[in-house]
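task queued by scheduler; priority normal; single chain, no ligands, no partner chains; default sampling; output format set to structure tokens
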Amino acid sequence: MAKHVPPPPDSSGPSVQPTPLREALEERYLAYALSTIMGRALPDARDGLKPVHRRILYGMQILKLDPGTAFKKSAKIVGDVMGSFHPHGDQAIYDALVRLAQDFSSRYPLVEGQGNFGNIDGDSAAAYRYTEARMTEFARLLLEGIDEDAIDFRENYSGDAKEPVVLPAAIPNLLANGSQGIAVGMATSIPPHNLAELCEAALHLIARPKATTDDLLQFVPGPDFPTGGVLIETRENIAEAYRAGRGGFRLRARWSVEEGARGQWVAVVTEIPYGVQKSRLMEKLAEQFNEKKLPLVADMRDESAEDVRVVFEPRSKNVDAATMMETLFRASELEVRVPLNMNVLVDGVVPKVVDLADALRQWLDHRRVVLQRRSRHRLTQIEHRLEVLSGMIVAYLNLDEVIRIIREEDEPEEALKAAFKLTDVQANYILDTRLRSLRKLEEMELRREHEELKKEKADIESLLASDAKQWKQIAWEIGDLKKRFGPKTKIGARRTTLADAPTISTTDLDDMLVEREPVTVVLSEKGWIRALKGHVADLSPLSFKGDDRLKASIQTETTAKILVLATNGKAFTLEAAKLPGGRGFGEPVRLMAEIDEGADVALIFAYKAGAKRLVVSTQGRGFIVAEDEMIAGTRKGRAILNVDADAELKLAAPVEGDHVAIVGENRKLLVYPLNQTPEMPRGKGVRLQRYIDGGVSDAKTFTLKEGLTWLDPAGRTFTVHHADLRDWIGNRADAGRLPPKGFPKSNRFA
């Protein structure tokens, strides 16, 4: 059997190198992430465009779809762009084209569409074989100077054509039209702004290069959305968002009241927030209405035609219009939060979150580069023309000799160069000129053009040599842009207005959304809670689960908030309207509030705005706290009283009066001025009464002039007047003395 001989390695072919799987995956994922960031998701800070938008506009420029020219089929545009520049699918290109043409999506549309390009209801555009498009004036401004060596070009994906790296961008498109995108590990969300305001800010930045974002906010108060609306974010939040480059804005629909007969009225929405589909908005509102979650609204209808007109009828003419609209804002997309994340490609390569000032600087620096490159390009053209004109002047002065040389010489180019000391360019130009034209040439005309070009050349050279002149030229261009699209023009007028945030509180709205009815909240010893209809005085017939029994009850209303205080010093907030009914045993409080293990419910009471409570631990330490500070927004509750491991929260007595009466388990009573007790939102508190052993039994506040009262075992009120309390009046942290005769043996005031 023959011996197997392995073939020699092929040194000419590629070698296979072993690579750890982790490194290979990391390298490929990073390449994919960078490709997504730079090629799809993030806009260039200089022209504010993503590659797909830039390619669409450049493709339309190649097709000569300038403003005022005939429209061409969108299918033609999409096909050319996909075939030459953007091989990512025709639908993706068409969707981007449609968005550029929608006046409710783009503040300054870059494409003028003909046909069905969708609407604010959310209807899709017609297929690209049915629609036509051309560029707008804004797109022309973005492309202005592209044929004058203003920007760099690179090879397309197939290497058979060139595409622009960035557009000249005579308008600050990044901020004017905004941008949205999601990349791998990052995103961008830039709302549109008013062009005239951006021009003013840019002019200020040219005049004062060290200007900050705060300085520019006097010119740019906030976004300006194509669909209008009302921005209700505070000025401080707006400023902070622009300074950080991250944040958000609350945007509301614009509405007004239309009066009817006999005091009747309706609320009419004429502008909806940016990015909200009206059909989806109406669908969600109808769902809320059918589920009776809009109690102040009797009817709603969409009367929109070309303009938005959504009508809301109140349930009663006595309903406050602002209050009704607040309920609608809370329940629907009539109010949205527009995010701000100015994550862009700085210089086209580096992802970075920039502030307002940096975003404008990127555009201004780019405009300066464009100005310099266009100027150098024009300078080259002038130098070439001057060279030609010099040769033509020589030809005119020696016209007969030039004609003779052309007719008789075998090598007229060399003969012309030798006879008149011409350059190759001059000689070739003379030879390429018709003799008839030579006869019509006039020396004065040639010299006039020559002098004009020399003057223009000097001006350009002076411009390129002076930074101040360059910025002056840029400022003039921006000023002209502001004049053309200023606030007095139809497209330049600000559409989004700024207003203060509403003054109607969340509590007031919650009360309005719930029908007010009396209820009795019942809490059992084992922590089961329920709400009985009406104010029930006699709870003896009430049944409980197993060996459970009544712990506490309060009479309140369905609109009230119930404060639950746990033994560990935390406060939890429940809504009376959401408590289980009284037909069963209720539900455990722990299902509604995350009470820690080892802790239990100490007491419950109905929240009262502006009221205060004296919270006391079993050790006799405590302080005064406002009930507003006890409201918790989450199920985790809010820490109020810090207690030791061997102590618990015992009391939360209402603060009404000027003195505190506290009694310990040792049956010692102390009365002291209320002002000796500190008021704080949370803490461990101070010692209210001193004990050798045991702790506090009960405490209350009262007015000294009216006397101290308590209930005797028979339910009768017993009062000790001011003069009779002298022996018990002392200072906070005293031990006290035995209470007056008649004080309940339970050591409690009620």
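post-processing summary
- The mean pLDDT is 89.
- The first helix runs from residue 21 to 41.
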